[in-house]
Design brief:
With 559 residues, this protein is α/β, with parallel strands linked by helices. The protein contains 17 helices and 22 strands. Among the domains are: 2-67 and 122-198 and 293-344, FAD/NAD(P)-binding domain; 419-558, Glutaredoxin (3-Layer(aba) Sandwich), CATH 3.40.30.120. Strands 1, 2, 7, 8, 9, 10, 16 and 17 form an 8-stranded mixed beta sheet that branches. An 8-stranded mixed beta sheet has the order 5-4-12-13-14-11-15-18, sandwiched between helices. The longest helix is centred in the middle third of the chain and has 34 residues, at 345-378. Bound molecules: flavin-adenine dinucleotide. Flavin-adenine dinucleotide (FAD) binds at residues 9-15, 32-35, 39, 43-46, 125, 149-150, 183-185, 189, 209, 252, 288, 307-308, 315, 318-322, 324.
Amino acid sequence: MIEVPVLVVGGGPVGLALACELGLRGTGCILAEQRPGINEHPRANVVASRTMEHFHRWGIADRVARAGLPLDYPVDIVFTTRLARREIFRFSFPSYEDCRSPSAAKLSQLPDLLQSRYFKTSVAQSDLEPVLLDFARSFDAVDVRFGWRLDDFTQDDDGVTARLTQSVTEESLLVRCRYLVACDGGRSEVRARLGVSLDGEADLGQFVGVHFRSPDFMRRHALGRATLYWAMNRESPGVFIAINGRDTFTFQRSVAPGESVSSIRPLAAIQAAFDEPIECEILSVQPWKAHQLVAERLRIGRVFIAGDAAHLFVPTGGFGMNTGIGDAVDLGWKLAAVIDGWGGAALLDSYHAERHPVAVRNTTEAADNYRKIRPAFARAQDAEAPDPLGASARSEIARGIAEGAKHFAATGIHLGYRYESSPVCIPDGTPSPPDDPQVYVPTSRPGSRAPHVMLDDGRSILDLFGAGFTLIRTGEGDADRDEALFVNAGRELGIPVSFQALGDAQVARLYERRFVLVRPDGHVAWRGDQPPVDVAALLRRVAGHDEAGATPPNPETAL
Ligand SMILES: Cc1cc2nc3c(=O)[nH]c(=O)nc-3n(C[C@H](O)[C@H](O)[C@H](O)COP(=O)(O)OP(=O)(O)OC[C@H]3O[C@@H](n4cnc5c(N)ncnc54)[C@H](O)[C@@H]3O)c2cc1C
């Protein structure tokens, strides 16, 4: 029997991200993945701004970006009837390079670039996972085991005993861990075994994903470089996704009601959507279904559920993996804190309280995007009719797509999620800013992502956040006294706290209060214009040592 603090089940992007977050914190884990290696069939391609901020914190953002589309590749999204026929509409978005050093013109076109150093980074999941895997393997604390599946587990008051089986040799291994995290995907057996049901709507749509190579593809249309090429026609509707920016793509062919998956011929489907007999080498084919489902509970005793095991999306918007990596970040520091001894029980309870509402919010938004784009496909046949019917259908489709712009630029979704009813974030009584999928409103309100702002030295304020809590203090006053107040209280409790006094007027304006306590995951735990009377009580609360409500809601005034 092997003993390890955490067993991560599943080596998709979420399990790998969790192993990275634990590895960074020196927390021992085994990651067991039943496949012999990475899943080479690409699925996700949008790595959202918030996810890139986490990768930046880990020091791998550039590696991730370089694994994806060429850095100068525009993240455009083009809508056509068929690729070799008509362009109906286009969203033009800047390349990774342009986002990293945006011109004044780009900033005025896309103010979202002021809210993060990242916008949309286009990296196929099959190219992202090897970067995460390499990074996870760089930590002594992380033991990645491909080819091992979880077959069985039981939990008791002190831990979880799990049986892993080597997929080829059938060798068996018992693992005793303090916590098990199920990152085992949409068909999660861990979730099923725990009897956790899924709430929401299943089977919103069915698709066949075809991964192919075609040197012809970029030569045989006149649309230029784009990340997504939508084909809105009745015969073979779907969307092409650029994978390497040269000759590999996926085609996500929508399966119509009454049509069977087995009747879809991958090459014929691609050629029909293209309207040219382009040459293709089919690399892999995977059917999949779109859902709007969330697990009713994300924690059962010592077992946590994360990623697709916890929430199933329609990919419209590109939220599934990004939300799952958000789960991994939220859970990673909390598990590490509890295992290291400075985190309390409420920290682990806060995982469900914080992430379940985000899962509901994001799956709902993705499904809304899906429902809004369906009518465009319903008009597809008319769009190919001779004018004037064709022209009128195409302009109606274009109008509908333009109105649904939130689907393609969801900065509010990626940066604006907030932990409203968390037992470890201390509300200050201020109202919640609007939660608009497209528009992110920067705020230091407790539970929110601490806002990004560029400092004079060229760094983002996010770069100042440490591995523990960070107290950001703006304005005048005795910085040494304030630092001693927070850092010494943390030291006495064993809770890591660092201190940053910033004189920058922009930070003071954006951070709204003189004292803002930022958690290890970059969310605000507490804020106030004065230090709390009892700093130790505040730190105990945000580190999960008090049950929710055991301390008064606003330590600034009450402690
Ligand atoms: C066409 C398409 C496009 C998408 N685009 C985007 C996008 O642009 N952006 C985005 O954010 N999301 C996107 N998604 C969603 C994204 O692919 C998923 O959300 C993501 O794969 C979830 O990661 P995961 O690690 O939770 O699960 P998975 O990737 O499903 O990984 C789970 C792993 O667990 C392993 N496993 C299962 N059972 C066991 C066991 N008993 N023992 C050991 N291992 C086990 C499996 O083998 C698997 O490798 C897209 C999805 C599709 C289908």
